[in-house]
């Protein structure tokens, strides 16, 4: 196994509107679509579509959404031995509004995701210990994520943690345990309680996440402003610019980035981190030019050749 994701599955209910609604406002949208989402599954699918051998540890409800979701995972060649369907909970749902400029706002009801437990992680020990990389997000209980990161560490397996959605009360261990701490500007702002909005403030944030929060390698994504990253052993903070594109739907762009990074880390280990980040950014830029989440993530066969060459 290359990549094991311990994380969420949501059915995305996306409404497309000319602009995002204001408080108390009723808007008429232009289009509605259901899609497969949830940050955990999105990242897993992004890596799988590029050709990584992936598995998901997750929970669904035994409802229509859950049944469809499981077949979606299987059709993406994801190992689902540790995906359970529960009678007692609903499949996670995300109500999403997407504005004309590609921006979005999302309300999540976690349902079954909230029942993914430490015990479920322990039952996946054989899977986790045989993998190259474990990837976690913040859409399942924190204690479960902590257990997954600890188990991976015990087994000598590298880890990426994506603190999304942002939570200002993140357990301190979630900063120091993962090898790669990968956040966007909103998450970094909330976690540090200061504005992170451009390359300069992101560089400062990288430094602080390492020095005062105990992170190892920090990667901060800034959308069209690119990515800034710093490793614990290198004082230099690097900025990797993004290729400008016209965004149609940015939902899941961060997941496309992390899933692609996971692919490069496990299938093209010899690439320098700067190249992996640059390429993952280019793949995320492809995804924002198509509507939807997982279905906008490119297959390996759809990528420009340069992104797959060593
Ligand atoms: O990151 C995008 C995802 O966030 C959506 O797919 C939605 O399900 C929410 O989890
Ligand atoms: Na998209």
From TrEMBL:
Catalytic activity: D-ribose + ATP = D-ribose 5-phosphate + ADP + H(+)
Compartment annotation: Cytoplasm; Nucleus
UniProt-listed Enzyme Commission number(s): 2.7.1.15
Active site: 255
Residues reported to bind substrate: 10-12, 38-42, 139, 255
Keyword match Transmembrane: no
SUPFAM superfamilies: Ribokinase-like (SSF53613)
Pathway assigned to this chain's UniProt record: Carbohydrate metabolism; D-ribose degradation; D-ribose 5-phosphate from beta-D-ribopyranose: step 2/2
Matching InterPro entries: PfkB_dom (IPR011611), Ribo/fructo_kinase (IPR002139), Ribokinase (IPR011877), Ribokinase-like (IPR029056)
Note accompanying the cofactor annotation: Requires a divalent cation, most likely magnesium in vivo, as an electrophilic catalyst to aid phosphoryl group transfer. It is the chelate of the metal and the nucleotide that is the actual substrate.
Sequence ranges assigned to domain Carbohydrate kinase PfkB in this UniProt record: 2-298
Activity modulation: Activated by a monovalent cation that binds near, but not in, the active site. The most likely occupant of the site in vivo is potassium. Ion binding induces a conformational change that may alter substrate affinity.
Database matches in CDD domains: ribokinase
Binding site for ATP: 184, 221-226, 254-255
GO molecular function terms listed in the Swiss-Prot or TrEMBL record: ATP binding; metal ion binding; ribokinase activity
Gene3D superfamilies, per the entry: 3.40.1190.20
Family assignment from sequence similarity: Belongs to the carbohydrate kinase PfkB family. Ribokinase subfamily.
Subunit structure: Homodimer.
Function: Catalyzes the phosphorylation of ribose at O-5 in a reaction requiring ATP and magnesium. The resulting D-ribose-5-phosphate can then be used either for sythesis of nucleotides, histidine, and tryptophan, or as a component of the pentose phosphate pathway.
This protein's name: Ribokinase
Lineage, highest ranks first: Eukaryota, Metazoa, Spiralia, Lophotrochozoa, Mollusca
């Amino acid at each position: 196994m290359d990549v094991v994701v311990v994380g969420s599955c949501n059915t995305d209910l996306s409404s497309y509107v000319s602009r995002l609604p204001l408080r108390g406002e009723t808007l008429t949208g232009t289009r509605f679509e259901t899609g497969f989402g949830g940050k955990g599954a999105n990242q897993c699918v992004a890596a799988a579509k590029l050709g990584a051998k992936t598995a998901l540890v997750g929970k669904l409800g035994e409802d229509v959404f859950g049944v469809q979701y499981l077949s979606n995972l299987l059709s993406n060649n994801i190992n689902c031995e540790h995906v359970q369907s529960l009678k007692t909970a609903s499949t996670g749902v995300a109500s999403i509004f997407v504005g004309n400029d590609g921006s979005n706002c999302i309300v999540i009801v976690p349902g079954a995701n909230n029942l993914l437990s430490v015990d479920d992680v322990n039952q996946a020990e054989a899977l986790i210990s045989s993998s190259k990389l474990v990837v976690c997000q913040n859409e399942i209980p924190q204690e479960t994520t902590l257990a997954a990161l600890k188990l991976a560490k015990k087994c000598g397996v590298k880890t990426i943690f994506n603190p999304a959605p942002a939570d200002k009360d993140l357990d301190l261990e979630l900063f120091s345990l993962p090898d790669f701490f990968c956040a966007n500007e909103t998450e970094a702002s909330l976690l540090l309680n200061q504005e992170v909005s451009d390359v300069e403030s992101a560089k400062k944030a990288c430094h602080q996440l390492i020095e005062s929060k105990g992170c190892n390698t920090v990667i901060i994504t800034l959308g069209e402003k690119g990515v800034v990253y710093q490793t614990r052993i290198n004082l230099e903070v690097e900025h990797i610019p993004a290729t400008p594109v016209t965004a149609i739907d940015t939902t899941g762009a961060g997941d496309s980035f992390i899933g692609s990074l996971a692919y490069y880390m496990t299938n093209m280990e010899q690439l320098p981190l700067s190249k992996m980040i640059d390429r993952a950014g280019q793949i995320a830029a492809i995804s924002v030019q198509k509507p939807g989440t997982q279905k906008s993530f490119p297959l390996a066969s759809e990528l420009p050749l340069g992104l797959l060459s060593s």
